[in-house]
Give the backbone structure.
Amino acid sequence: MTAIRPFELAIPEDQLVALADRLDQTRWPEEEPVDDWSQGTRLAALRELVAYWRIEYDWRRCEARLNSIGQFTTEIDGLDIHFLHKRSSREDALPLIITHGWPGSVVEFLGVIDELVEPSDPAAPAFHVVAPSLPGYGFSGKPGQTGWGVERIARAWAELMQRLGYGHWVAQGGDWGAAVTTAIGQLAPDGCRGIHLNMPIGRPGPGDMESKDPKVLKALQRLGFYQQWDSGYSKQQSTRPQTIGYALVDSPVGLAAWMLEKVYFWTDNDGSPWDVLSMDQVIDDIMLYWLPATGASAARLYWESFGSFGEGIVAISAGASAFPGEILPAPREWAERTLTKLVYWNEVERGGHFAAWEQPELFVQELRACFAKMV
């Protein structure tokens, strides 16, 4: 049960044909009566994406890329965990476990893994990279019972690193990955030298509501926007994940619309979701929800843990990179209330919520700079 099993993707062709049929049979709503994204995913943008998906997109390209990195599964705590694992040729490489969030997947890291593992600059630090799919996401197993919240996932990730033979390691994450990585920091398992977050988690204190600090004011403004206009998905998934799950598992266009809205609002773009990510990249991510039918199982993580997102204190070494397009920016003083041993903090010049996906070079630089202070 503790075996590490090679995993190779080879999606049957009939599944891809069935997907094409569903795309052809889409029943479209009327166009939104506004000229922006204020009512959600715009019809024109979604039609453009779906047309590309149906005619030009090549799943086999993504499949081959994932297989070339190295995919594995192992059973932990009764559940199969899927993960990418690529070891460096460098003897001094530092083991790193890196965790995605929603609506992301391991494809967020396809642009950073090679550079982390085998740096183009021989003087740069190297990493052995482990990128697991969260339970209920991608090709990991779907929990059949409740209880798979971020604390349990953190324990599973510590077991995974031990099982892979890594006596010391570091952890990184954004979105749900930030919550899991924060939980790893709270757990402080043997071997974990420190953590890095590209979504620093922090909450305002009593005095912040009267603050004149521009960074605090920006954070409060973004928090207000999120709560009023941007959090409907989280309310639905944290209260009734099964209900939305039927639509997300049954309709590829519904799934794409649910996810594309967040690509638009959460990336650091200039007015189009394609300013920073290509259609191929976005559809690769959608496919990791569509093919294994994880719309409901992924949403259940919100039901499990959304109410306790980022709570608790991290006493081990921690670092954070604040990207300007983050959906819930946290000023350093907010982050330090959770990360009590903050050894690295940097405000990055560009990038949004999906840091590794949007700005792979900057993301790699941040990890190198942060973890150099820990080992």
User: Anything to note?
Assistant: The CA atoms of residues 240 and 303 lie 8 Å apart. The chain has a mean pLDDT of 96.
